Amino acid sequence: MTSPVPARSPLRTALLALAAVALVLLGAGLAVLLGIGDRGTATPTADSVDAGFSRDMSRHHLQGVEMANLVAERSEDPEVESLAVDISATQTNQAGRMQGWLALWGLPITGGETMAWMPADAHGGHSGHDMDMDMGAGALMPGMATEEELADLRGLSGTAFDVEFLRLMIRHHQGGFDMAAHAAVEADVQAVRDLARSIEQSQGIETETMTDMLTARGGTPLPAP
């Protein structure tokens, strides 16, 4: 039986929400400073690697932020709470930067065929774990949790929550790896390549850390996406 979810201060919840908004705005501001092409290219088009990566990875990140923000109210583990704060802050900032680039380029933040900017063989081997893998607009990307998985996570607390959170977040990080690796090489804008490379490297390290944390709490990883 899981422990009851402890009551949290409404003020704390409001402050966390305000902090998330501030990070998005900060990310967009940094995009103004950093989001200019370096290869003499024109502004990226809607079907470019730069735009596709920015659009899809920002949406992928925001689901990670959604899961991380559940931790404050459902976990009693300081190590998991610290990890979640780092993930939420980092991925909110990065999503803000990517959405800021899209705004600067005059391109929509959402829409378009999911992952159409990647060659089929770069993501065709993913299992999809009951995802809608037709890759139409709004389709779940590799590693993303389904609505059923998110609902199950929201219903947990204590150690049971920690284990499932780590399982889902490990898979979430793994699912974004191919996108980041492809954009790190193929994007035209230097800032996009740099961010993609940073995501590829940092999420690889975080995945190893979370795997160790999961093992210490008696859990086992989900199948890789």
Structure report:
The protein is mainly alpha-helical and 225 residues long. It has a single domain (45-110, 133-225), classed as Up-down Bundle (Ferritin), CATH 1.20.1260. Helix content is 62%, strand content 0%. The protein contains 7 helices and no strands. It has helices at 10-34, 49-68, 71-74, 78-104, 147-154, 158-186, 190-216. Helix 2 (49-68) runs antiparallel to helix 4 (78-104) and helix 2 (49-68) runs antiparallel to helix 6 (158-186). The longest helix has 29 residues, at 158-186. The radius of gyration is 18 Å and the shape is elongated. The two termini are 30 Å apart.
Main features:
7 helices, mainly alpha, 0% strand, 225 residues, elongated, Ferritin, single chain, disordered N terminus, 62% helix
List the helices and strands and how they pair.
Layout: H1 10-34, H2 49-68, H3 71-74, H4 78-104, H5 147-154, H6 158-186, H7 190-216
Helix pairs in contact: 1-4, 2-4, 2-6, 6-7
Overall number of strands: 0
Residue windows where pLDDT falls under 50 for at least 5 positions: 1-22, 27-37, 124-133
Distance N to C terminus = 30 Å
Structural class: mainly alpha
Query: Mind telling me the C-alpha Rg?
Result: 18 Å
CATH architecture: Up-down Bundle
Major sheet description: none
% residues in beta strands = under 5%
Q: What is the share of helical residues? A: 55-70%
The first-level CATH class is given as Mainly Alpha
| H/E series | HHHHHHH
User: So what's the overall shape?
Assistant: elongated
Number of folding domains?
1
Mean pLDDT: 84
Find the CATH superfamily.
Ferritin, core subunit, four-helix bundle
